[in-house]
Each structure stands twice: as C-alpha cells, then as structure tokens.
Amino acid sequence: MVKLSVIYYSATGHGTAMARIVAEAGEKAGAEVRFRPVAETRDPQSFADNPAWSANYEDTKDLPSATGDDIVWADAVIFGSPTRFGSPAAPFRTFIDTLGGLWAQGKLADKVYAGFTSSQTAHGGQETTLINLYVTLMHFGGIIVPPGYTNELKFADGNPYGVSHITGPDNQNPVNDATNAALEHLAQRVVTTAARLAG
Ligand SMILES: Cc1cc2nc3c(=O)[nH]c(=O)nc-3n(C[C@H](O)[C@H](O)[C@H](O)COP(=O)(O)O)c2cc1C
C-alpha cells in the first residue's frame, strides 16, 4: 500500500480545504494517508482580528503537526502552501528548513512529490510558488510528478504545474468544482505513480 503524506500550511483555511480533498482522494486511490498541517508560527493573538485565520487555527491546532518523519515514512508527499509575494509562505519554509539533517542522510530522495497552492489573484504568483517548491524538491532528489494536461479536466483548472485555487479579492472564494477535480486528479496521479515505482 502506498504511503502518502499531505503536508501543508494554511492561514485562512483554503489550504486546509484543499489538503482535505487531496487526502480523501489519496485514500480513495488506495493509499494510507497522513494529514499533516505545518504548525502555525505566529502567536494567535496577532491574528485574532482575522476570523478566517482564527477559525482555521482552532480547526487544526490539535492535529499532529508535520515533522520530517512524515516524509521519511512516505512513498509520496503532496505539499501545499499559500502564495505569499510569489513564493511559499514563511511557516512552510520554516518547516522545510528543519529538514537539513534528513536531506544530508538522503532520506528525502527517491519519493514522489507534487504541490498545490492558492493566491488571491489569478496572476499573483501561483506558478512561481509551485516552481519555487519544486526547486527545493530537486535538492531533495525527489521525483516530481506534475499533473501537466494529462486529463481533460486540467483544461478547466488550467494549471499544469500543480493545482491552484484563486481565493478572490476578499479572500473568500470556496474551492470550485474545477479545482476540486484537479486536486483529486493530482492525488490519484501521485499515488498511481508511487505504486508503479514500488513495482
Ligand atoms: C503576506 C501575504 C502575501 C501574499 N502575497 C500574495 C501574492 O503574492 N499574490 C496573491 O495573489 N495573493 C497573495 N496573498 C494572498 C494569499 O495568497 C491568500 O490569502 C492565500 O492563498 C490563502 O490561503 P490560506 O487560506 O490557505 O491561508 C498574500 C497574503 C499574505 C498574508
């Protein structure tokens, strides 16, 4: 059975919704799944005036947070982070920066990886965020499995680099059907590829 870790950071909850879709689709594809939010690095008081951020924090704070072991354990990892200034968010990078020891031992290599992101605007850096993530995965020696346009549905969500959601001017757009389908497709593709590599 393929082991899939879904490791993501989310402040205002879009990433959490996306990660849940990925995890469920991974299970449907036959994987054993670890669902792991990256721990919030900010004091909750600092975002107490942001209801979406506070709600997501309350919703996820008691779940086990991502650790390096969740990558070592897995055959496949799907990462998620919001786009911030065209790159993955700092808390996500803080988690990545804990992985030096495992990287030095070669324990992050030879696994299947892919990613998803969200941003407020369509051209606000979704592709650069994913490419940024994938540069790191190259350093891991990871096997990056982008979705490309390998299914008709990718022409609806339109992102061959990974999956991305546009949260909108008020940062309140829920995940739409096209993105939902693209997340399910990504999870299925990653699990299937990992199973093939395992022989
Ligand atoms: C510091 C900061 C920087 C951001 N930079 C961008 C950006 O470059 N482009 C963009 O479209 N949205 C940007 N956003 C909006 C976030 O991408 C959006 O709120 C996020 O995708 C929501 O994901 P989450 O609900 O999982 O936290 C930024 C938000 C913050 C807080």
UniProtKB/TrEMBL annotation:
- Domain Flavodoxin-like, which positions? 4-191
**InterPro entries assigned:** Flavodoxin/NO_synth, Flavoprotein-like_sf, Flavoprotein_WrbA-like, FMN_Rdtase-like_dom
Single GO cellular component annotation? membrane
GO terms (molecular function) for this protein are: FMN binding; NAD(P)H dehydrogenase (quinone) activity
Q: Which Gene3D superfamilies match?
A: 3.40.50.360
The record, for PANTHER family, names:
FLAVODOXIN-RELATED PROTEIN WRBA-RELATED (PTHR30546), FLAVOPROTEIN-LIKE PROTEIN YCP4-RELATED (PTHR30546:SF23)
Which protein family is named in the record? Belongs to the WrbA family.
Protein name in UniProt: NAD(P)H:quinone oxidoreductase, type IV
